[in-house]
């Protein structure tokens, strides 16, 4: 684990404990460095949160999912492997606990989080469309499927929805995709 990973994990730990109200002094103390060192790495607290969000999603995109280069997995195998391993999901849960505060105090970072989730949903949508076990969808069905994935994922972040239901982000996403793949009709 590089120094940057340690920094981002410390930021995420502080967000989990205190929400985005943590101070740079607390981060410096946790990392056993000076505040000056923190400000040499990051121009502002907004940048700290911004880069922590990037850190969460650096491994969530399918290209970094641990599949060896040159490996040939079917879209179905890739989707199943991806949902089982789902890197970064526990970090999303840390932010979700303080979604309202983040949305209110750091709207640009909140927008970035939502954009990452939209991109994540698009990547999974592409796997669904490429899966040979999924029937050929009409243009309208594809549009509705993408909208359903992205809007449901966003809803998970809003108003502490998952926290109030006692669910984790990973469990909710797995259930959503299982329902899409299997349907609910008996």
UniProtKB/TrEMBL annotation:
Gene3D superfamilies, sorted: Tetracycline Repressor, domain 2
A GO MF label: DNA binding
UniProt keyword annotations, A-Z: DNA-binding
Domain (HTH tetR-type): residue spans on this chain: 1-60
Domain of life: Bacteria
Database matches in InterPro entries: Homeodomain-like_sf, HTH_TetR
DNA-binding region (UniProt annotation): 23-42
UniProt name for this protein: HTH tetR-type domain-containing protein
